[in-house]
Amino acid sequence: MRRTPDPGGGGKRGARGGPAGAAGAVRLVLASASTARRRLLEEAGYFPEIIPSRARELKGRGMTLVEMVRANARRKALAVARRAPDAVVLAADTAIEVDGRPFGKPRSRAEALAVLLRLAGREHRLATGICVAERGRVRVGATVSRVRLRALPRARLAALLARYDPTAFAGGYSIRRGRDPLVARVTGSRSNVMGLPMEQVAPLLARRLGRRLQ
What we know:
Blueprint: E1 28-30, H1 35-43, E2 49-50, H2 65-83, E3 88-98, E4 101-103, H3 109-119, E5 123-134, E6 137-149, H4 154-161, E7 183-187, H5 190-194, H6 198-209
Parallel strand pairs: 1-2, 1-3
Antiparallel strand pairs: 3-4, 3-5, 5-6, 6-7
Helix pairs in contact: 3-4
C-alpha cells in the first residue's frame, strides 16, 4: 500500500491485526490531521492512513450543537471517501456550546481568550460527531460530554494560550491526561473531549473491520 504523508508524525499503516498491504487487510483512513485522534486510534490498536479532509465546515447557523458536528463529520468523511473509495473512512468534528450556540475553532488567540473568559468557572457542552463511510454506506453518530473549566483570571488564561495554537482546537482548548491546568471536570467521555469518543468509535470500527477489540 502506498504510504500517505502524515502531518501528525505518522507511524504504521493499515487496519488492526495485520501489516499494511497484507492479503485481506482492510484499509482504514482517518480524515483528520489531528495527532490526538490518531493516537487514540493507535492506543485501541488501529493504525490508519491520514488523509485530512478539505471539506468546508458548517458554522452551525440555525443548527443545534449535535446537528452541526454530525453534519460536518459526514461532509468530511464523504469528501475523503471520494479520494479513497476502497477504504473505511473515519471522520470527526468537535465543537462546544457557548451560551446556547455551537462554536467550533476560534479564528485567533484573541477570540480564544474571549471564549475561555466566558466559560471560565462554568460548565458547557462539548460534542463530537463521527462518521464512518465505506463503499457508499454511511454511519453517523455523536457523543456529548459536559466540561467545567477552572475559574482562572485573564492573565493566567493568556499565559496558557501562549503555549499552544488555540485555533487548532474546538473552543480554543485541549485536554491533557491527568490533572489539566484548564479543565476542572469532565462528565461523560473524556476521549470525546480529546477529539474522538472511543466508547462509540471502537465498537463501530470493530464491526466494520471484522475484528473485535481485546
